[in-house]
């Protein structure tokens, strides 16, 4: 079984792609409805009368057509007649209404969570961010309400409401870097009586290819190596690889990732499928997968790579030409004499794992090594220096496809995915490091608006060497440092901070600290505030805000009593609401010491629930915490623990070096996605203007890592 992955982009660089676009759509219907006149239709009125409250609202309908790529932003624009300073709220609404018949009595309900903003000056346009309500092409119906009376122009009033939809890069352009990829685990871990069926020790263990966490982790790893889209081993309709391919697409689309996937057609390597069979399979792929924004397309044509058996020749090319009535972009596996065939596909590729480099006119393939699980010696021995030379040669070639053989074919021993045999400080392994360091032609440098945040808590004790291990990671990684509390054990005294100063203190000038409970074991955490000075925020409060790159950063004090409380209406909570209301940043991150959610020894600290609610309502992205001496990542969720794709993602990063605490139970807390309790390290966040990547950096000698990406709400 063989599989191919093709990818573009990376956490620090992206391959060229079609430029971001903005599409404007004008309302095709609008009307006010009022409880005061429940049967009256106002569809022909020149103004939309809204508020106060939901008893007088407006309905808008838009036809969003030909929205390509991922929606990175959407702005509702309304022309204001009156109502400056009022809060306008938008929600999704039912679609079964017509402009000239709708009235309050038959109006569709407002649905889901509201998004909103303040009404601006009369005689001008006001813009409201409605990104969370727009998901792509289709009919969009909105319900608008207001905190007090507002008058907006309608379609009939000469300034119809409109929506601006911002879409990200839709597809990569050449050159496209690719890596052969396998989605056949866990079944393939056991073959021919051998388990695990590999000579190596994958850092991620014997994972499940159908796991959402594995898919996300693999995308992040390949993007790190400037690999941008996936061509996945596919064995036919109804096969397990068929079901997994659908899962891979859906997980990628849900993450709004720039990564792309295509199919590697394996039946061609098992014989000579007929023209009718190939045509039927291509039609199935088109109808089931081609519409996904995560499917790799070239000039709007979905991409299919086809394997071949050793006896294939020009007859194979003839069959594929006859079968391709759906205008797919086809790349066939090369064979001797392929250049002379009368029928030529769009491209040729080579899968040759026992050969270190195979340059063709349309592709350039490289292999790190070939060592079958059942062999006594490698056919192609691994050599990192040779690999680096091959990467440079591939990146400098003029080939349309740069093919990596393979990302994760562990049975053949060709994987570049991280293994203990070639683990590295990045967490991605030495082979992906080489791909990361040489992105090749068409790659742009990191955006100047990106920023790095390095986070951990529970750090220094004079008797522990763990803080020295994590300080070495700080030395080799630039960026702002988020110290997540419990910085100086055991009691946060001046002497304790001397031990902190000897390790993490070398980087004090770029540290933004949060205060922990151990700091308060000394009266009023005085040595903490003395040590950090103004960097710790107002003395005695322990909460403040700042910016890192384009992100708004809020540092809070989860020691509620000395902070004056954390409950609704407390000084800190009121300050937080005002601070969040005052920022214009698209992305927000907060950190403090005690976790609201945790599988660790201390468990959940519900005192921070009102704080989480405020962050959720402000559409914050990330919360970082410590306290439990482990690492744990949670899916986005509400303050009550309900999973919500628009919720806040929490990372517990109590891995600064003090010691390890085992998890309380074998069963993770709800929404926990990954956890580890035996590795010191840092969480590295790359903060983009509209999203983020995360990477856990383990201490030297450890292999645990975690990586992924997200977008701002």
What are the main properties of this structure?
about 725 residues; alpha/beta; TIM Barrel; Jelly Rolls; Purple Acid Phosphatase, chain A, domain 2; 3 domains; 7-stranded mixed β-sheet; 6-stranded antiparallel β-sheet; 35 strands; disordered N terminus
Describe the overall structure.
With 713 residues, the protein is an alpha/beta fold. The protein has 3 domains: 5-16 and 172-437, Glycosidases (TIM Barrel), CATH 3.20.20; 21-167, Jelly Rolls; 451-711, 4-Layer Sandwich (Purple Acid Phosphatase, chain A, domain 2), CATH 3.60.21.10. It is 17% helix and 27% strand. It has 12 helices and 35 strands. The longest helix has 15 residues, at 240-254. The two termini are 40 Å apart.
Architecture blueprint of SSEs:
Layout: E1 5-7, E2 21-26, E3 29-34, E4 47-50, E5 53-64, E6 71-82, E7 87-93, E8 110-118, E9 125-129, E10 138-146, E11 150-153, E12 162-167, E13 176-179, H1 212-224, E14 229-234, H2 240-254, E15 260-265, H3 275-288, E16 297-298, E17 301-306, H4 314-323, E18 329-333, E19 347-349, E20 357-359, E21 363-366, H5 384-395, E22 401-404, H6 430-437, E23 451-456, H7 466-475, E24 480-484, H8 494-503, E25 511-514, H9 526-532, E26 544-548, E27 551-555, H10 560-563, H11 571-582, E28 588-591, H12 609-617, E29 622-625, E30 631-634, E31 649-653, E32 672-676, E33 681-688, E34 691-698, E35 707-711
Parallel strand pairs: 13-22, 14-15, 15-17, 17-18, 18-19, 21-22, 23-24, 24-25, 27-28, 28-29, 29-31
Antiparallel strand pairs: 1-13, 2-12, 3-5, 4-11, 5-10, 6-9, 6-11, 6-12, 7-8, 7-10, 16-17, 20-21, 23-33, 26-27, 30-31, 30-32, 33-34, 34-35
């Amino acid at each position: 079984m063989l599989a191919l992955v093709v990818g573009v982009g990376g956490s620090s660089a992206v391959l060229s792609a079609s430029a971001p676009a903005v599409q404007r759509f004008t309302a095709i219907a609008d009307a006010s409805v009022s409880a005061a006149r429940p049967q009256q239709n106002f569809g022909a009125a020149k103004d939309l009368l809204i508020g106060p409250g939901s008893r007088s609202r407006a309905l808008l309908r838009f036809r969003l057509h030909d929205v390509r790529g991922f929606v990175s932003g959407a702005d509702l624009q309304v022309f204001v007649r009156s109502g400056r300073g009022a809060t306008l709220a938008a929600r999704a609404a039912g679609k079964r209404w017509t402009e000239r018949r709708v009235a309050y009595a038959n109006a569709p309900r407002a649905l889901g969570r509201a998004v909103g903003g303040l009404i601006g000056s009369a005689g001008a346009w006001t813009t409201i961010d409605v990104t969370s309500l727009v998901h792509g092409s289709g009919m969009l119906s909105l319900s608008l309400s207001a905190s007090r009376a507002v008058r907006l122009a309608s379609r009939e009033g000469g300034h119809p409401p409109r929506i601006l939809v911002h879409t990200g890069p839709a597809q990569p352009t050449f050159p496209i870097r690719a890596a052969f990829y396998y989605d056949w685990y866990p079944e393939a871990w056991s073959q021919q009586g051998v388990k695990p069926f590999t000579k190596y020790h994958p850092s991620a263990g014997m994972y499940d290819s159908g796991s959402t966490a594995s898919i996300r982790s693999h995308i992040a790893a390949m993007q790190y190596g400037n690999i941008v889209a996936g061509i996945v081993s596919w064995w036919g309709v109804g096969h397990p690889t068929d079901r997994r391919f659908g899962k891979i697409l859906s997980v990628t689309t849900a993450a709004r990732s720039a990564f792309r996937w295509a199919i590697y057609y394996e039946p061609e390597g098992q014989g000579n499928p007929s023209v009718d069979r190939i045509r039927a399979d291509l039609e199935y792929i088109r109808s089931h997968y081609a519409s996904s924004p995560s499917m790799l397309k070239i000039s709007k044509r979905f991409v299919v790579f086809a394997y071949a058996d050793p006896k294939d020749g020009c007859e194979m090319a003839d069959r594929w030409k006859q079968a391709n009535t759906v205008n797919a972009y086809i790349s066939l596996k090369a064979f001797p004499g392929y250049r002379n065939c009368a029928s030529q596909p769009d491209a040729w590729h080579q899968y040759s794992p026992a050969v270190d480099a195979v340059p063709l006119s349309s592709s350039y393939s490289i292999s790190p090594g070939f060592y079958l699980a059942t062999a006594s010696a490698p056919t192609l021995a691994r050599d990192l220096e040779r690999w680096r030379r091959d990467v440079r040669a591939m990146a400098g070639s003029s080939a349309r496809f740069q093919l990596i053989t393979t990302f994760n074919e562990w049975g053949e021993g060709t994987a570049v995915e991280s293994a203990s045999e070639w683990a590295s400080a990045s967490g991605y392994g030495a082979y992906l490091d080489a791909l990361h360091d040489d992105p090749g032609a068409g790659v742009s440098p990191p955006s100047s608006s990106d920023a790095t945040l390095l986070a951990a808590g529970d750090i220094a004790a004079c008797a522990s060497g763990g803080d020295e291990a994590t300080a070495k990671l700080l030395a080799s990684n630039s960026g702002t440092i988020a110290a997540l509390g419990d910085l100086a054990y055991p009691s946060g005294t001046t002497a304790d901070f001397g031990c902190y100063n000897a390790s993490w203190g070398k980087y004090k000038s770029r540290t933004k600290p949060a205060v922990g409970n151990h700091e308060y074991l000394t009266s009023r955490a005085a040595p903490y505030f003395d040590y950090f000075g103004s960097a710790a925020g107002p003395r005695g409060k322990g909460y403040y805000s700042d910016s890192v790159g384009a992100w708004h950063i809020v540092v809070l004090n989860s020691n509620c009593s000395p902070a004056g409380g954390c409950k609704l209406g407390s000084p800190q909570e009121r300050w937080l609401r005002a601070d969040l209301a005052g920022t214009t940043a698209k992305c927000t991150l907060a950190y403090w010491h005690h976790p609201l959610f945790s599988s660790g020894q201390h468990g959940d600290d519900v005192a921070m629930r009102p704080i989480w609610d405020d962050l959720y309502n402000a559409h914050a992205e990330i919360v970082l915490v410590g306290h439990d001496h482990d690492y744990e990542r949670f899916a986005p969720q509400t303050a009550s623990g309900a999973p919500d794709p628009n919720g806040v993602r929490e990372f517990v990063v109590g891995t600064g070096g003090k010691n390890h605490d085992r998890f309380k139970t074998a069963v993770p807390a709800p929404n926990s996605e990954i956890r580890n309790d035996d590795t010191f390290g840092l969480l590295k966040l790359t903060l983009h203007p509209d999203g983020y990547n995360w990477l856990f950096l383990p201490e030297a000698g450890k292999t645990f890592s975690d990586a992924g990406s997200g977008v701002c709400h």
